[in-house]
Amino acid sequence: MNKLLVALLSGVTALTLAACAVQPAAHADLPATVNATAPANWSVDADVPRETADPAAWWNQFNDPAMHELVASVLNDNLDVQAAVERVKQAQALTTQRRAALLPQLDANAGGAYTRQNTPPPLGYVKQAGFGLALSWTPDVFGGERLELLASQAQLVGREHAADQIRLALAADTAAAYVDLRWAQAELKILQDNEQIRERALKLTQRRLQYGLSTKLDVARAQNQLSDLQSRIPRTQSTIQHQLSLIAVYSGRTPESIDKLMLANAGETPVIPVPASGAPQMLPSDALLRRPDVLVAYATVQQRAAEVGVARAERYPKFSLRLSDGLLASSYLGLPTLTDNLFSAALNATSPIFNAGRITAEIEQNESRMRESELHLRQTMLEALKDVEDTRSDLVSTTESTARLTDALSASDQSLTLSTQLYKGGAASFLDVLDAQQSYLRDADALNQSKREHALAAVALYRSLGGGWSVTGDDAIKTASNKTETTK
Question: Which positions make up the signal peptide (predicted)?
Answer without folding.
Answer: 1-28
